[in-house]
User: Fold these one by one.
Assistant:
Number 1:
Amino acid sequence: MDYEEYLKNLGELEKSALLETFNIGASHAADALSQIINKPVTIKVPNMKVSTIKYLPTEVGEDIKAIVYVGLGGDFNGHAFFVTDIQDAMKVYDIMLGQEIGSTKDMDEMVQSAIMEIGNILISAFANALSQFLGIVIEQTPPQLAIDFIPAVLNLAIVDVAQYCDYVILIGTNISVNEIEFHENFFIMPHVEDMKKIINKLMEGL
């Protein structure tokens, strides 16, 4: 099986199955975040695409981002990343504290800690949804936060890039906190063999 060719030509049925899977995770993440910040949160995954690592900066933005990343292990190896704009991160922090948006002016340690927790909740929810979809166990490392450009963070997070698939599953993530909308990105970068696990599941006819 040419997994790269399969990924590039992923059909609407397969995309729909993955979208449904990640929307289940998004719903669980929204519930968890609502409890933590004591404010209404909704999270939806309106779109999903397969992108190459090369074009990731174009897809998610070429400016400096706040990026939460987690290593994946167990029956599924790779990394998962939550990517948000710096301004969005500070706005979310303002909402969490119940203060006027714009009050937070820089990404200090308190803001970074809050965003890392939010990113970890999202990544955990998406990883759990994927593990249920595949029927396997996905373990996670403690979250890390980097404020940098996408290529720099990939170099920081991933020691041996040769083990990884050239493609990533890129998930558009719409987050509404207190009726204020944020449009962020989440992506999974698996090892080659683990990307094939997703493909095999899809090819089984779901």
Note: The chain has one domain: 3-203.
Number 2:
Amino acid sequence: MKYPFIIFYREDKDSALDQFFFENNALLNCTVHITNKISKMNRIYSANYHLLITLHNEIAHEIDVDIKEISDNKKYIKLTKSDFSDVKIFNDLVNNRFILNCSLDRSYLRPVFSLFTSSFNSYEKIIRAYNSIKKQTLENWEWVIIDDSPDDKHFLFLKKNLSHDCRIRMYKRSENSGSIGNVKNEAVSLCRGNYVLEMDHDDEILPTVLEDATNVFSKNEEIGFIYMDFINIYENGDNFKYGDHICKGYGSYYCQKYNGKWAYVYNTPNINNITLSHLVCCPNHPRIWRRDLLLKLGNYCENLPICDDYEILLRTAINCKMAKIPKLGYVQYMNNSNNNFSLIRNGEINRIGPQYISPIYYKEYNIAEKMAELGAYEDPFANDTRNNVQIWTRDKTYVHKYCNLLVNMDFKRQICIVGLDSLILNLEYIKVLYNDDETDFILLDNKCPIEYLWKQLDSYGFDRMKCYSFIDVDSDLLVRYFKTTYLTTKEYEIVKTGYINRPKYNTQFTNRSHAINSVTHPDAKYLEIGVEYGQTFLQTHFKTENKMGVDPDPKFDVLNKEFQFSKSTSDDFFKDNTLNETKYDAIFIDGMHQSEYFLRDFSNSVKVLEKDGSIFIDDILPLTYNEQLKIPRKHYYENGILKYGEEWTGDIWKVVYHILKNYLNNLEEYKYFYNPCYRGVLHLKLKSAFEIPDSELETINNYDYFTDFPLYLGLLNL
């Protein structure tokens, strides 16, 4: 055995070079380990291996990429085949490099980044963390794991599953501590990197976090701490969010794709006196320090069994410049543990945290005074602050103050699309902009549920676009949300266009009955489906004895009247009507406002319509996305029947669109009546009877308000 220990990587085609080492084995002043496996080069991260040698010019590019960051290449030597001709020259070369390396600044031979983890019976969950760490674009890292499990079984698991990676250093405590501050303090003291990141044992880190943080630190010497955004998800991958009023109104959310699924990303707040007043408002994972700074601050408090992160964050905030990299950097998995220890621990956090730790440390470290010096002080007694009002909804005179830097290295420009309407109307323009990888996009909407936005963005292939939905919020507030909580580039654009679905009123008829009366004869035989309160039914000009009303739950007196009335569902009525084969000249359909029910009502109406008869359809023109939902947001059931507490047309328009699109040749004429007093009445006269098969219902239900409704308006000539 002779030092230095050398890894010599060569491809199989160069195996003849092995003979140089075999023939000169007794003369070599080093120990050479020959390999043809790229994975074996990982040994260079071990202190037991001192140099890595590969062949110059003939080595594959992928290998160069794998070892480009090894200790700033100080351990890495590229040789040509001619360098393997003289053993003395070879000995001098490797020994000189070995000894010189040992005299360099220690940072050259140590990892750039250290991740540290406290582990307690983690088992398979820690493999999830490792799988995310090894995907880092910056490969020059180490991972320090302190096992605080009560027995040796878990440490044996760690060694079996992680010891193959020489960048991982595992330590077993002599006894279980249970104090997280104590364990993290010890872990940090073992780190050798310039920068340290706290990594929970069961979480994930995104691939560019270490590289991004290194770039920010290297370009800004004053920055001592970096944080980013994160997501909370359950073990099964389901989303979790705390709510839009989190962090006293300073926190917020946006959605983006993670591992092919949409997730709620917590937009971590900026640093000021308010956000430092409570643990929930402070930066969560990832939390990244310069190692020297963290040690100078005294490291974690080993005497704090809980809330140790809040204490060290306050120390950090008053002793260095903080920076936020505004992007998703960390995935925190929700712990559903309900064991006694977890319940007791959480109870203590809720007791000691807000009652003692937060107020005492806030005062002890003079947070308010320090933030005022940094221009990051906001009045904690102002109405908006005291009532946790979201900062983007506050009075227009409000100015958000903070002391951290915002460093967006991924994008030069950000585009805020206000409303799905704007996306549809400007789709081609946005597609062109989307080709620029240095442009960031966020779609903010006030009409559609977030799941609908996800579906639409998926349909357009906008996988890297972010989005969020605030139902019924004014569009101007959406712009303020963007500018106050999301905007981090100097260059930006607001894409905001008027609504695409605002048909014009075309009649002076203020009642549906007036519209029906205008195109029918009083002697006509009339059927109305869905009478309910009877306004239209009673005001039509047809002779009383020629009227037939149908409703399972009428709200007016239908007894002792000259008109006919069936207190039943339309399905039951039409079933019974086939027995007497009654025909009608005019039929008004105003029953259940859902495509499935309306389609049956329409098909049944065609069967009982006289040859030159007319069909009238109510509520064909919803004003908003919410009005045309299959089930209204505000609804209730009365006598088993769906009722609504807001303007609602249902999705009848989809069936009408389908008719105009596919059965136009069966129509003699069609005309609509539209007035502010109602949501449109369509008059149809048939050229020939037709039936829409149930098999087309899936197509009907798949029509989309934002993509198909404008086409529907075009068919109506609106």
Note: Residues 58-62 have pLDDT under 50 and may be disordered.
